[in-house]
């Protein structure tokens, strides 16, 4: 009987620990994960400054990559609804992003040309009542790509993240719990 109780308590403790975790890196391409010199990574912001008042943290999560939602399966135990990092293949990529801070949200859809082996970060700047997103190439220390509306030689429809970003924007206007 003691072993059963210990097992149950251990399961609850482990589920509590994993419930606070973040999601793993989202792989935005088919097949096995490529070596780091054959792919690029793009990262949002996972602010952990405020431990007790976590709502004061500013986070940028990745909603979508190349037309596919990055939302995990419904049974995940992660606290956050979307991942903070994605692995992408070299070439033109599209990502949808979600920024959140103190029950305020913003979504955006961006494009950039990834180079194998490079690391990218989604940067944000709050400007009055809007949030401006940019993508920084951390390897070359420069801004790359931009908002979907500015994409040269636009990709057709399904690869960009405009539709998914708009769907999430509509869902955020309804009372809901999305940890950001």
Q: How would you characterize the overall build of this protein?
A:
Helix content is 16%, strand content 36%. The strands form two sheets. The protein has a six-stranded mixed β-sheet, with no helix packed on it. Strands 3, 4, 5, 7, 8 and 12 form a six-stranded antiparallel β-sheet that branches. It is globular.
Largest sheet, in brief, is: 6 strands, mixed
Strand content: 35-45%
Compute the average pLDDT.
75
Can you list the strand order of the major beta sheet? Answer: 1-6-2-9-10-11
* Unreliable segments of 5+ consecutive residues: 5-20
Q: Radius of gyration in whole Å, from Cα?
A: 18 Å
Q: Whole-Å distance between the termini? A: 41 Å
Q: Tally the helices: what do you get?
A: 2
* Oligomeric form: single chain
Number of strands: 12
**How much helix is in the residues?**
10-25%
* Order of secondary-structure elements: HEEEEEEEEEEEEH
Determine the structural class based on helices, strands and strand pairing. Answer: alpha+beta
Morphology: globular
